[in-house]
Write a structure and sequence with these properties.
The chain is mainly beta. It contains three helices and 25 strands. The protein has one domain.
């Protein structure tokens, strides 16, 4: 579906079975510039919640976790890190209705803004491996404006959300998002500007994480045919191995390319479009490499992205059942590459993609 916004899909989904074994998160990433040097740096902010049915005053770790976690961090070189701050369910407030609202002490998230801070001291990170955190400090205050949405269709419809059939759900309310404000990262101030932030926002929820886990997205796109910078374009690819009840759909991806106001969707759940996907993700000594080819009866998209491992993080999550299955989940925000888009076999455009949000992990 073409750029259909649906904030009902962004509400907290931890009810029914998912309240007992389930997670829900709101993810945001963007690029900012150092207020003094002008150097670019990519950041992310995530509000993650799991297993509220056993929630307590303090966060619960171990074989059955229950907490609200604020996960923030930065990519790029030696000054990269992921920082985690945990709250017990009785210390947090999550509005279940539309629009959503998440609050935990000074950390706050809505559809239109977010603010907060996370501080993890080196001795704390070392003493608490259950925090899965590096050491560092980040604070932020941002306005959020979601411009283009990826609406995946009936796979995340109200009925499917109630039935909770998928192991992992996805909705990208802001696959192109403008952020505005500032970030303090380990003592340095960064400015976030709407037109240059290369922003993204989505949401995942369910009972467990997919494997393989694939994600690629960018709105920093330049035509290699014309040299023109595209101002109303973004692509988003995600998925891996969807599970619907007992049914496993191996190596399937969902994707959408919003190309200057035209929508090109590659969605396996819409079988009538004849969507077919082939992808390969691999790790070298220095890079993570993605190659994705998707076709429908009329359209084709070929995506080739690389990201330097030195700029990426091995992000850490605990599944709602307490397991740490993904031990090499590579996550970055500085990928680069090309995307080629075809219609009836004819090349529409070949685009240079930068500031690519990217993820790959498999167990």
């Amino acid at each position: 579906m073409a750029n259909i916004h649906d904030i009902s899909r962004n509400t907290c989904q931890l009810f029914g079975k998912q309240a007992h074994q389930g997670y829900d998160w709101w993810w945001h990433n963007f690029t900012a510039v150092d207020a003094e040097t002008g150097e670019q740096k990519a950041f992310f902010i995530e509000f993650f919640a799991c297993n509220p049915s056993i929630g307590d005053k303090k966060p619960i770790f171990g074989p059955k976790p229950s907490y609200v976690m604020v996960k923030v961090g930065a990519w790029g070189g030696a000054n990269k890190a992921q920082l985690h701050r945990f709250f017990g369910w009785h210390q947090a407030s999550i509005k279940m209705g539309v629009p959503f609202d998440v609050r935990a002490f000074n950390c706050h998230l809505t559809e239109t803004g977010t603010s907060g801070s996370v501080l993890v001291k080196p001795e704390e990170a070392k003493a608490h491996p259950e925090w899965m955190s590096d050491a560092g400090y980040m604070s932020w205050k941002l306005k959020i404006r979601k411009l283009v949405a990826f609406h995946v269709g009936y796979g995340a419809s109200a009925l499917m959300r109630r039935l909770q059939l998928f192991e992992m759900f996805w909705h990208a309310e802001g696959m192109k998002t403008e952020y505005e404000g500032e970030v303090i990262w380990n003592g340095r101030k960064y400015i976030v500007r709407p037109k240059t932030c290369c922003g993204y926002a989505d949401k995942n929820w369910g009972r467990d994480f997919t494997s393989p886990w694939v994600w690629l997205s960018s709105c920093n796109l330049t035509s290699e045919l014309t040299g023109k910078k595209l101002t109303d374009s973004v692509f988003d690819i995600g998925g891996g191995r969807p599970k619907i009840g007992p049914l496993i759909l191996n190596r399937q991806l969902l994707s959408d390319f919003w190309y200057e106001g035209r929508d090109f969707e590659f969605n396996f759940s819409k079988f009538w479009t004849g969507c077919r996907t082939q992808f390969e993700c691999r790790e070298t000594d220095t890079q993570i490499i993605w190659h994705v080819e998707q076709r429908t009866w009329f359209n084709r998209m070929v995506t080739d992205i690389v990201c330097e491992k030195k700029d990426m993080l091995l992000v850490r999550y605990q599944s709602p059942d307490g397991e740490h299955r993904h031990k090499r989940l590579w996550n970055g925000g500085t990928g680069r590459g090309t995307v080629s888009l075809y219609r009836f076999g004819k090349l529409i455009d070949r685009l240079r993609a930068e500031n690519v949000g990217c993820e790959y992990g498999e167990y």
